[in-house]
Specification:
Helix content: 25-40%
Order of helices and strands: EHEHHHEEEHEEEHEHHEHEHEEEEHEE
Structural class: alpha+beta
Strand content: 15-25%
Radius of gyration: 25 Å
Number of strands: 17
Shape: globular
Length: 381
């Protein structure tokens, strides 16, 4: 049964990775806007991908099913816009097709086991769920994203109080002026509380760990004070220029949010890597290299698997039907029954995802990466 997705769900991992039989995988880029040119471009691009799948052992029924699933009609192409697509098929059946807007990977085809998901995971990592709030002293405009190829949902929060000016009417002095100031500051605090409540609910709803804010400095400060500690604790907060009013900043807002989210992802990756370094000692929770990492995956211990973007694809590993049945090739260890040989990186990714672990792709430009391209932080010793 085909899984049609705009988000990489658990069902995608299960459909593609749980069975140990080979999977046909294609990643495709953008399509031209003109139909005739598109048709020519499609044939030019699809033929070498199909040939590669066939050379690696894919049957004609699987290739045909995958071609039909990833070939968009004119209307679908228009709806997809600049989107890209990733498709997975096995034994003549399409398992999943995902719209992957902005995926930087070139066209790629692979047939083997486990299915090659690294480009998809890297794309997902750069497009996480987030919440954006443009805040002033009366409320906020929110943008809530579940990430990946999905458009954000926008909403408005209006605070309960409209007494926001500190100036007393009619030129009152002394006590009257102080009273109006206190009323205004109370109103700001009440409004900030309403925004904090709405943002906290949004963060929990989409399971975001990135919050981007813009607007009035005082309103931002009050908002962050009101944001529950249980929510604030797990958030990476980024500020961007601009305000809630139509001052021209909204024209560049989408790009600023995207840059802030990407910066937050880089900071989170660096923080995880620092944790890895701190645990990389004989009694620590870090493992590194193919042998140690697969050993930890075999006992279901890996919480975060690190994979280098350009990890060597030549290294191999044995794996069985169960996610924890993994053994490096050439180490003289017992091979699981019904074992298959696959790329070590793909075997490690399969084991991590199917045992509840997170996969963190280290980009080539990061300047750091685990030995042999794989490593991890474990849940326990």
């Amino acid at each position: 049964m085909t899984v049609m997705e705009h988000r990489i769900t658990r069902s995608v991992f299960e459909a593609v990775l749980r069975p140990s039989e080979p999977v046909a995988v294609v990643y495709m880029g953008n399509a031209p806007a003109v139909v005739n040119e598109y048709q020519l471009e499609w044939e030019t691009r699809w033929r070498p991908l199909a040939d590669k799948l066939r050379d690696e052992g894919a049957d004609d029924a699987t290739i045909a099913a995958l071609e039909s699933a990833v070939r968009p009609s004119a209307s679908a192409r228009a709806a997809r816009g600049q989107g890209q697509v990733a498709g997975f098929a096995r034994a003549g059946q399409v398992l999943a097709v995902l719209t992957t807007v902005g995926m930087p990977a070139p066209d790629l085809a692979r047939y083997g086991s486990p299915g090659h998901m690294l480009p998809l995971l890297q794309w997902q990592q750069l497009r996480p769920p987030y919440v954006f709030a443009a805040i002033d002293r009366t409320g906020a405009d929110l943008e809530i994203s579940i990430g990946e190829a999905n458009a954000p949902v926008r909403s408005t929060v209006d605070g309960p109080d409209d007494e926001i000016e500190k100036n007393a009417p009619g030129g009152w002095e002394g006590l009257a002026q102080g009273r109006y100031q206190r009323r205004a500051e109370d109103s700001w605090a009440h409004n900030a509380g309403a925004v904090a409540e709405a943002v906290a609910a949004a963060v929990r709803r989409v399971e975001a760990d990135i919050l981007v804010i813009a607007g009035d400095d005082r309103a931002e400060h009050l908002f962050l004070e009101k944001l529950p500690e249980s929510v604030r604790k797990g958030l990476t907060v980024k500020r961007i220029p601009g305000s809630r009013s139509r001052d021209g900043s909204e024209q560049n807002r989408a790009g600023a949010i995207e840059a802030a989210v990407r910066e937050a992802v880089e900071e989170q990756t660096a923080a995880l890597w620092q944790q890895f370094l701190e645990e990389r000692h004989p009694h620590g929770l870090a493992v590194e290299g193919g042998y140690e990492t697969l050993g930890a995956l075999a006992s279901g211990r890996v919480a975060t698997l690190f994979v280098a973007e350009d990890a060597a694809m030549g290294a191999k590993a044995w794996f069985g039907p169960a996610p924890t049945e993994v053994v490096p090739v050439g180490e003289g260890l017992p091979v699981p029954p019904e074992a298959r040989k696959g790329r070590l990186v793909d075997v490690a990714v399969r084991a991590a995802l199917l045992t509840g672990g997170e996969v963190r792709v280290i980009p080539a430009a990061a300047g750091f990466w685990p030995m042999e391209g794989v490593g991890g932080i474990c849940r326990f010793h």
